[in-house]
Amino acid sequence: xxxxxxxxxxxxxxxxxxxxxxxxxxxxxxxxxxxxxxxxxxxxxxxxxxxxxxxxxxxxxxxxxxxxxxxxxxxxxxxxxxxxxxxxxxxxxxxxxxxxxxxxxxxxxxxxxxxxx
Amino acid sequence: xxxxxxxxxxxxxxxxxxxxxxxxxxxxxxxxxxxxxxxxxxxxxxxxxxxxxxxxxxxxxxxxxxxxxxxxxxxxxxxxxxxxxxxxxxxxxxxxxxxxxxxxxxxxx
Lengths: 117, 109
What we know:
The complex is a heterodimer. Chain A has strands spanning about 5, 10-15, 20-25, 30-35, 45-50, 55, 65-70, 75-80, 90-95, 105-110, 110-115. Chain A has no helices and eleven strands. By secondary structure, chain A is mainly beta. The mean pLDDT of chain A is about 90. Chain B is mostly beta strands. The relative contact order of chain B is 0.35. Classes of the chains: A mainly beta, B mainly beta.
């Protein structure tokens, strides 16, 4: 199955610890998006990356959050010094990013549910 | 103003009913439009892309009205298995996607 993979599926951290969330896009996809979803709320865009480049991070909190998509390996969303308010589901999606020819649908991974104690 | 707006519902309908959802978007330069389905605590799954000419997939029909900047989803003969949250997504120029907060549907047997 070449779907979007995320791990871990569940992550528990204590306040002040670091959380690292990983996302491997679908085969052939070079664009990765990270979203956060709080309970009973919609998907909130965080960051959009291509290989080795951050294209748009306008939805990312300015402190404690960072993201990367290295040339080799998965995309990583890193949250430093987590607080209780960071508890949420974090979804990764990928798309081909091909210009006008492809319709560029996004396909989502199963998400990582972060709980901060 | 939000990029994408949806009526959150909830829509509670009897089995067999026809239900319609609308979604409005603010950026007239938006290029692509999608409907996703999200079941409780699961990831969103692509239901259908919305083409300018409209498209139909079984009991589901999607329409796009660029002049009025809205996208619609029609579900005919709704089934209990259709119960979910339906998310409208709009792709702007530059490859960023914007999602609505979703419309909750419950189909009662």
